[in-house]
């Protein structure tokens, strides 16, 4: 008779990560208001009660997803800053922009950012998570790039323009208005 290994139960932290990864896809697809915790639980293969043990309410689950996405963005920008050839603000910001373009080709991450910005309008906890996430990113980009206030602002403005271009597929339409929006903006 073959000896069976005892079944190893996942820890609460592993389950939390599973729920978080599952919630990213669910919230990306349907947004804050259109996603239920029962949908997340079902997709994660756990009970809704267990989701609530890990995240006491939908708001906390969504803000954890938003914070997770900001961590991914920061890691991407850090990677670019350490691998860039050259140290001028333009070189560092250019490398960060390229890495960010690669990152938002993951539609889930971009959709979470867009849904978070929409929910921030009326949901104070989401607004605070978005504020804190951007505060950390702006300060990191400022420090890592050595860029001026104007350069850092332009970096973030270009990122928002990239969101708009990608979300509506503007680069797939050949028209004067899309050429205006996409001029000088290259999405990977």
| Strand residues, percent | under 5%
Helicity, as a percent range: over 70%
Radius of gyration: 19 Å
Query: How far apart are the termini?
Result: 55 Å
Ranges where pLDDT stays below 50 over 5 or more residues in a row are none
Structural class: mainly alpha
Along the chain, the helix and strand elements come as HHHHHHHHH
**SS elements, strand count:** 0
Globally, the shape reads globular
Describe what you observe in this structure.
This protein has 188 residues and is mainly alpha-helical. The protein is built from nine helices and no strands. It has helices at 12-34, 37-44, 48-54, 58-83, 89-103, 107-120, 124-145, 149-168, 176-182. Helix 1 packs across helix 2 and helix 2 packs across helix 3. The longest helix has 26 residues, at 58-83. The radius of gyration is 19 Å and the shape is globular. The termini are far apart. The relative contact order is 0.11. The model has no long low-confidence stretch (mean pLDDT 92).
Summarize the entry for a quick read.
This protein is an all-alpha fold. The protein contains 9 helices and no strands. Helix content is 76%, strand content 0%.
Task: Summarize the topology.
Layout: H1 12-34, H2 37-44, H3 48-54, H4 58-83, H5 89-103, H6 107-120, H7 124-145, H8 149-168, H9 176-182
Helix pairs in contact: 1-2, 1-4, 1-6, 2-3, 4-5, 4-6, 4-7, 5-8, 6-7
